[in-house]
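Tokens for Carrier domain-containing protein. Go.
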Amino acid sequence: MTDDFSAVVARVLQVPAEAVRAEPGTGPAIMWNSLRHLQLIGALEQAFGVRFTPREMRHARTVAALREIVDRQTATRTPSTGESADGLGRQ
């Protein structure tokens, strides 16, 4: 079974969801080009209500790095409002 994050990545990169691995060394590396990178960032932002900073977009070049950003942002949301606890208004 795959999680929602893996399903989004698989859909955008057009690979089987089972092939998406966040941990290095657990499967073949998944590579993508700059266009797919922007599509992937947009799909993750839409699916999880997060916002990547320009720095995060430049440096998140692996599935593990993307997952870490999504996990960090979704974990800091306040349950009642859906906004981030850092006050930046990310949803």
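Helices lie at 4-13, 34-48, 54-59, 63-75.
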